[in-house]
Amino acid sequence: MNLFNRKPVVCNICKRETSHKHKPKIEWQIHGPLCGDCYVNQMKTFYELSLRQKCVICGTDKDVPEMWEPRYQWEIKGLICKPCFDKKDKEFHKLKTFCSICGKTLGIIRYNPKRKWIVRGQLCRECWDSQKARFG
User: Fold this and answer.
1) In the chain, how many H helices and how many E strands?
2) Whether residues 119 and 86 fall in one domain
3) pLDDT at residue 2, as a whole number
4) Where are the alpha helices (DSSP H) in the chain?
5) Parallel, antiparallel, or unpaired: how do β-strands 17-18 and 9-10 relate?
6) What is the pLDDT of residue 3?
7) Are residues 3 and 36 located together in one domain of the fold?
8) How many angstroms separate the CA atoms of 56 and 90, rounded?
9) Are residues 44 and 3 in the same domain?
């Protein structure tokens, strides 16, 4: 009555027989049992891949703790590195602080351009009026 006796199982990666089988994780996209060595190797590679990512803007490969999450106004999906974050933040601050056409400092009242004008950023009163007169 071999109750605790297990039949040997063939590993799906290295094709060796093993008495103890490990079930692979779904994210690994491996079907079938694994031996202990192959399971540990798959675990290491998957864990190392999750710790490093590429910057969405420049493509440099960095550790995840060194990456920054972009602001929701930038409409960027993924993580970016610190230099790209600083550059993008500076551009965003410039778009919010200065008029996109004449470059004057904007006060409390700011004007958003219409979509058909194809202007990025915000406008001062004079530039908004001139754009309205030109394009309607």
Assistant:
1) 3, 4
2) no
3) 53
4) 36-51, 82-97, 125-135
5) antiparallel
6) 59
7) yes
8) 17
9) yes
Q: What is the DSSP letter of 111?
A: B
Q: Does residue 30 sit in the same domain as residue 43?
A: yes
Token duo for residue 127: 């530039």
Per-residue model confidence (pLDDT) at position 49: 67
Answer yes or no: do 23 and 38 share one domain. Answer: yes
Q: Are residues 35 and 81 in the same domain?
A: no
Question: Which residues make Cβ contacts (< 8 Å) with residue 40, sequence separation at least 6?
Answer: none
CA distance 86 to 96: 15
pLDDT in tens, 76-93: 998 899 999 999 999 999
Domain count, the chain: 3
Under 8 Å between Cβ of 52 and 65: no
Rounded to whole angstroms, the Cα distance separating 47 from 39 reads 12
Residue 75, both tokens: 């409409």
* pLDDT < 50: residue spans in the chain: 1
- H-state helical runs in 22-124: 36-51, 82-97
Q: Are residues 1 and 42 in the same domain?
A: yes
Domain ranges, residue 33: 1-51
Q: How far apart are the first and last CA of the chain?
A: 90
